[in-house]
Amino acid sequence: MKTAWDKYPQDKRNVVMDFAEGYKTYLSNSKTEREATKEAIALARMAGFKRLDEYESLKAGDKVYVNNRDKGLCLFVIGKDDITKGMNILGAHIDSPRLDLKQHPLYEDQGLALFDTHYYGGVKKYQWVAHPMSLHGVVIKKDGTKVDLKIGDKDEDPVVGISDLLIHLSADQMKKTGANVVEGEDLNVLVGSIPANGEEKDENVKKYILDLLKEQYGIEEDDFISAEIEVVPSGKARDYGLDRSMVMGYGHDDRICAYTSLMALLDVKELERTACCILADKEEVGSQGATGMQSRFFENAIADIMDKMGVYSELGLRHLLSNSYMLSSDVSAAYDPNYPSVNEMKNTAFFGKGICFNKYTGSRGKGGCNDANPEFIAKLRKVMDDNEVAFQTAELGKVDQGGGGTIAYILANLDMEVIDAGIAVQNMHACYEVASKVDIYEAYRAYMAFIKDMR
Questions:
Q1: Model confidence over 288-306: pLDDT tens digits?
Q2: Helix (H) or strand (E) holding 140
Q3: Element (H, E) at 146
Q4: Helices H, strands E: what count in the chain?
Q5: Which of 94, 129, 222, 363 could form an SS bridge with 164, CB 3.0 to 4.6 Å?
Q6: What is the C-alpha separation between 235 and 153, in angstroms, rounded?
Q7: Is the separation of the CB atoms in 268 and 75 below 8 Å?
Q8: Residue 160 · residue 135 · CB < 8 Å
Q9: What average pLDDT does the segment 385-398 reach?
Q10: pTM for this prediction
Q11: Counting Cβ atoms within 10 Å, is residue 338 exposed (0-12), middle (13-18) or buried (19+)?
Q12: What band does 368 get if pLDDT is binned at 50, 70 and 90?
């Protein structure tokens, strides 16, 4: 079976492997949407990008970004063409399934201190127990002070986790369906067991944890009310496979497409059409809210860009959106030999076949999908072939097997041509997902070709 690896003989694979090293670093440092945004801004500024408010006006060649509450970005490279003729847009999301601490999370039960959580996104809850976990997030105190929290990823850090029931006492548990083997309200994170010295009152283990948090971070118990603290898998992204051909890590969905889209925009040179990279939050829970793709942030950012160019009008903005092309950069499901029955083999994504285009996603009769137009797909095929990009097409499993969604339909609702285009992964939404290095590199090349040549 011919694969994208065939394009890179043994003595020419360094380009693939080296690109994966940069991605592994980004993934390891970006376990929350805030961290992903911070890392993206750092990379962008090194590539010559500036905040919008650092420009008096904008012209062709300028590189600019707009920050959405530290939880998302829009980045632009201004092209030579009239911007109302449309942009080439790459859009990915930077949130991933996880566990969020509740606003009143800390409690004690029989001498153990625990955090109460609410899971975020679609997860198999049983996959999130008996793993080393880290705590990442921010606490905003009443006076506005921001406290960054990151515990569990340095070698010297402690980790936390959620216990599982031992097999010896699991007779009743093992009779449950997979959806209920672990209940959502049982995803409680064990964080301590030492009582505060000299304390005889109740909840002195909880008090000791609060004492530690106050001493090390200046956090009071009430500060959890205005905090966003996420429980995420501990550890760095790693090479996977004896041949090091894959990457295993937390958050491939969808930081793998965010990174490749971002790097394509950062590395592009002069452009005819303006190019944009969107890094959005909240996709895993429907894209609502001020930082989700359904907010007006994207349109507002474009309006501000047009204003800095001296060409803003409401009609011009509408024409820009209608004339734009977009790749909704999100992961697809890779074929897994352990579970072949869920796939229809002619329309399945495989490791090593390059970037994956999904004409539609959705579920149960394409419900909730964007269904890309064939005229747009034909143009896209030509761009990929002209640039010798390895690509494949797929559906997300057999008809009526399940399904999923992306941000594609949201942008399509703005009257632009959109298709889903991303990297196939295994273990999607588990603590540790897996992807092929050559697919990662081919996605980067595909995104570069799209923003450079799509017209």
A1: 999 999 999 999 999 999 9
A2: strand 133-140
A3: strand 146-151
A4: 9, 22
A5: 129
A6: 6
A7: no
A8: yes
A9: 90
A10: 0.95
A11: exposed
A12: confident
- How much is the average pLDDT of 263-292? 95
pLDDT of amino acid 370? 85
Q: Which CATH superfamily is domain 4-96+250-453 in?
A: Zn peptidases (3.40.630.10)
Residue holding tokens 């010297």? 156
Where is 116: in which H helix or E strand?
A: strand 112-120
CB atoms within 10 A of CB 80: 13
Cα–Cα distance, 254 to 234 (Å, whole number): 18
Peptide bond into 53 cis (omega under 30): no
Separation CA 421–CA 383 (nearest Å): 14
Residue in this structure with the two tokens 């440092």, named with its chain if needed? 29
C-alpha 70: how far from chain center: 14
Q: What is the C-alpha to C-alpha distance for residues 80 and 88, in angstroms, rounded to an integer?
A: 13
Counting every residue, how long is the chain?
A: 455
- For residues 381 and 425, the answer to whether their CB atoms sit within 8 Å is no
Q: Where are the domains of the chain?
A: 4-96+250-453, 99-233
Determine whether domain 99-233 maps to CATH 2.30.250.10.
yes
With contact defined as beta carbons under 8 Å apart, do 397 and 339 qualify?
no
134, 150 Cβ separation under 8 angstroms: yes
Residues 6+ apart with CB under 8 A from 296: none
Going by C-alpha positions, the residue among 292, 145, 293 that lies closest to residue 219 is 145
Q: Specify the residue for token string 């204003």.
A: 307
